[in-house]
Amino acid sequence: MSPTHPSAAQPSDAQPAAATAPKTASAGNARLVVSEQGDQGPGRLEPGSVDEGASAPAVPEVGAGPQHPAGPAPAAAEEATGSEVGVNSPAGGAEPGAGADVLATAETSVAVGAAVPAIAERPADIASPTSGGSARHKRLTRLRLLLALVVGLVLVLTIATGAGAWAFTNALHASYPLTSGTLDVAGLSAPVAVQRDANGIPQLYAQTSQDLFLAEGYVQAQDRFWQMDIDRHITSGTLASMLGSGALKYDEFVRTLGWRTVAEQSYAKLKPDTKQYLQAYSKGVNAYLATHSGGSSLSIEYTIIGAPLVGKVSHYRPAPWTPIDSVAWIEAMAWDLRDNVDNEIARSLLTQTLSVDQIEQLYPSYPYSKHPTIVTQGALVGSTYEQNATASAALPAAAQQKLAQLSQLLSQVPSVLGPADPAGSGVGSNSWVVSGALTTTGAPLLANDPHLAPSLPSVWYQIGLHCQNIGPQCQYDVSGYSFPGMPGVIIGHNADIAWGFTNEADDVSDLYLEKIDGHDYLYDGKEYPIAEHTETIDVADGQPVTITVRSTRHGPLISDVSDTDKLVGKDAPAARSGDPAQGAAPGIQYAVALQWTALQTNPTMDALFELDRASDWSEFRAAAEDFTVPAQNLVYADTKGNIGYQAPGRIPIRKSGDGRWPVPGWTSAYDWTGYIPFSALPNEFNPSRGFIVTANNAVVGPTYPYTLTTDWDYGYRSQRITDDIKRLTANGRKISVADMASIQNDSYNPQAAQLVPYLLNLKTDAFTRSAQNLLKHWDFTQPATSGAAAYYNAVWAEILKLTFGNKLPNGVDAAVLGFDGGDRWFAVVDAIINQPDSEWWDNPKTTQRETRDTILTAALKKARLDLTAKLGKDVSAWTWGRLHTLTPTEQTLGTNGPGIVKWLLNGQAEQLAGGSSLVDATSWDLSSGDFQVTVAPSMRMIVDLGSFDRSRWVNQTGESGHVDDPNYLDQAPLWAAGQTLPWAFGEHAVKAATTATLTLRPAGP
Asked: Is the alpha carbon torsion for 852, 853, 855, 856 positive or negative?
């Protein structure tokens, strides 16, 4: 019998009675069963070449930097012993059947002044819709070589007959979607036309809304079902049932949070129309599954996990899709866009080596005097409200150790928006909208590029959804980016309005340190029984595992899932959930609970359909009011010439504390007292300046009466975008679509402009000076061809390591502490660069006292040595792109499969412009030890409200999820070059772009 997935945390009015009522009887025995897996670190490919013959002077020792682990190490999965599986799915709350096996883990993490120049250097905007042919030619060449080697790989399929290569090729192509002709599809009431362009992007035309979303489900399943199937197993905590024991700890964590139960409860409260559309979408997916039952007919990945010597799951068959599979996506999206939880943990861990005042210097306040806020007018309510206070930073050592374990676990939880980012660093977005008074078209222009961890296939699916006749039976005419597995369009435009998202980064979660006494927890001097329930997790290559999920009034005890001290580091003492609470009565232990708005039911799915059919500012804001999770910045423009901004979201009001630190859960002093009313959330409509910029910067100034967060992005990108818009519209000039694209590709580094003059003033040896001279005439932009950018970023990394690395706690990964080199560190260094004798420059582990110039000089020398090893001795041959690469990587088998499978599924490395916290936000992570891209624009779009057919868009990879399909990676070269595709919307433009038409017609009785 399969268990249900009770929610680990309910709304305040629906908490389990046992968690909120005073203790009246002893709770039942609780037992947590976990599976311990050994860790195996992945190899790392160093970019560039090594010139072993290069000579260089020794560098003076000024103190060791931090350890730079390769990142979360995947646990090795045990091979199954001939098990077979049947239907396996999270659908309907039932657990998938056991028996699925895979070659490795299910982990989806990847181990990522001077005169101001004009905007960026990359060609932007214009690209042929058929670009990317050369990339396909290379992939076909690779495929032929793969087929030549396949016999030696795994005796794949029918090797004994000598037909292995032929069979593999046939399996590879068996799942490619039918794009022309006619198909009978059950559930349709009338025919639906699916018109695809050369990039495989479908435009759907239907007579009813239900038919439109049913067809969307069918078409998305054609292109992306493997991705959809993996994602629903992630969101339901059933990944181990599909991919084996390596995914067990992730399932334990997701079950502890209760994502699927929240999705079930949210679905029950959705509007009737929303439920109908979700049901129609599910019917479309299932109509596809009905004729594509498994294996190669669905995707080559299913063939791979069933291949001899690779996996033994040849009988795996996905279960039907359900509306809950789609709604649960919202929980995962909210999790991926989290930020503050990681910062709470990092601040607490830093107290091991730093004072609270020093920690505050490493998390400086937003520079309101230097960088803009999003809103300068609008809903800046002036009434008096309960203000948030500041929480204490002091936590016992055992509690700090528990938080360290927890942070490592959080960083490894699978992500549906790309590989997990250890501290949420770099995850953000750019969006801005310009009034028609400032544009060449006389109508608003809106741009958006969400920054997420790279993923293959892309997290986005481009689509157009068109009703042939707009009316009560069919209300949609919308185009943009959707999520595979979710109906509708998430970001894009309809016939009247356009909208874009950036992460608002509001603080919507808190960690509570709970005092546990057996089966009870302490709260305001009384003991309350812990709410408990068990979850049974099926494991493909092992026996089912049963865990006990525990919750207090604040939420689930997520520290129960932090299972081993190995997650913290070799020097960290063991500290499991239930460590003795220092200073408390005997028998009292610590645990960590998570209170998070996404663990309450939400109407966000209603909001998405409302956005898709909104026709004006009023309807847009009504939709935004329902967009409670995750909190996003919404920018707006319409065909009548209006522009606007709305901050939505369910944002808590705290009795005390500002959300920066974990807080005591044994007192009500830090409880949430309610949520900021929507009417008081910031918004703007037609501001007098003529444009609105959101780039994760502060939404409002410090006088706003509520606390949204204290952890904004520091505004370097928003300031540069603002400067670009002002420059491009100065002296009566008007901004064009091409100008908007050039802003998206702007790689100007404001930190370099601040720091380079100090670097050039230092005297160095001749060997170092040859690299130092690269900075003399640099314009501070970072094209892939720039040698100066390569050297500067290497110097910047060394400055941070030499200055701050020796002050971080031992045994805690640098990634856990947010030591990424991004915009927060820009602000930290800005604050001390004019203080040559600041204590921060000094290394406490040496006898001499280091100063700013000591550190900067050593950084110049160390960077010269590092790049000599990676790029060669000749500095004229250095380029930023050789260091700063992105390899499109499939996030299951392409990450953890055998080498030749990775070779098949993954793309070619692209050399990229941009960098961390730049407008062209191709971020790299200092803690990873290299400059490979960890976060990047996941797509780019520019909407022209004067003529939608003049709009532009591009995806990071391609539309198809099928390896070697022409549209698998065809957009990647365009994206990497900063180029975009035409975005057809009107019927005539779509017809002109159409290269294949498939008619879906109702199936007979």
From this structure: positive
Q: For residue range 50-99, list pLDDT tens digits in order.
A: 333 334 444 444 444 433 333 333 333 333 333 333 333 444 333 333 33
CA–CA gap between residue 755 and residue 778 (Å, rounded)? 12
Tokens 């001795």 appear where? 873
CB 73, CB 109: distance < 8 Å: no
Q: Which residue has the tokens 């801005």?
A: 432
Contact 591, 516 (CB under 8 A): yes
Name the burial class of residue 496, with classes exposed (0-12), middle (13-18) and buried (19+) by CB atoms within 10 angstroms of its CB: middle
The answer to whether the annotation marks 507 as part of a ligand binding site is yes
Instruction: Give 518's contacts (C-beta < 8 A, 6+ positions apart).
Output: 26, 27, 587
Asked whether residue 46 is domain-assigned, the answer is no
Q: Other C-beta atoms within 10 Å of 767: how many?
A: 17
* Residues 217, 478 contacting (CB under 8 angstroms): no
What is the pLDDT averaged over residues 821-831?
A: 95
Residue 433 lies in a domain: no
Residues 974, 132: Cα–Cα separation, whole Å: 7
pLDDT digits (tens, 9 = 90+) for 859-915: 999 999 999 999 999 999 999 999 999 999 998 888 877 788 888 899 999 999 999
Distance CA 853, CA 833 (A): 10
Contacts of 638 (CB under 8 A, 6+ apart): 444, 496, 497, 498, 616, 617, 945
Whole domain around residue 866: which residue ranges? 750-781+787-878
Is residue 759 within 8 Å of 752, Cβ to Cβ?
no
Judged against a pLDDT cut of 90, whether residue 153 lies above it is answered with: no
3-class SS at 423?
coil
> Are the C-beta atoms of residues 919 and 748 closer than 8 Å to each other?
yes
Residue 800: both structure tokens together: 């941070």
Task: Provide the pLDDT confidence category of residue 472 given band limits of 50, 70 and 90.
Answer: very high
Q: Which amino acid is at 487?
A: P
Q: What is the dihedral of CA 952, 955, 958, 960, to 10 degrees?
A: -90
Which residues participate in catalysis according to the annotation?
429
Rounded to an integer, what distance in angstroms lies between the CA atom of residue 628 and that of residue 626? 6
Q: Tell me which residue of 969, 946, 950, 944 sits closest to 959, measured CA to CA.
A: 969
Residues listed for the chain: 1005
Residue whose C-alpha is closest to residue 233's, from 155, 321, 312, 168:
321
873 domain residue, yes or no: yes
Q: What is the rounded distance in angstroms from the CA atom of residue 814 to the CA atom of residue 816?
A: 5
With contact defined as beta carbons under 8 Å apart, do 441 and 950 qualify? yes
Query: Per the annotation, does 331 bind a ligand?
Result: no
Write out the DSSP string of 372-386. --S-SSSS---S--P
Q: Total structural domains in the chain?
A: 1
Q: For residue 802, what is the domain's CATH number?
A: 1.10.1400
Distance, in Å, from the CA atom of 577 to the CA atom of 564, rounded to the nearest integer, reads 10
Distance, in Å, from the CA atom of 863 to the CA atom of 362, rounded to the nearest integer, reads 24
Distance of CA 947 to the CA centre of its chain: 32
Q: What's the angle, vertex CA 903, arms to CA 902 and CA 908, rounded to 5?
A: 110
Annotated binding residue 779: no
Q: Please list, in sequence order, all residues whose beta carbon lies within 8 angstroms of the beta carbon of residue 150, skipping any fewer than 6 positions away.
A: 156, 159, 164, 165, 168
**What does the alpha-carbon distance between residue 13 and residue 268 come to, in Å, rounded to a whole number?**
16
Answer yes or no: is 755 within a domain: yes
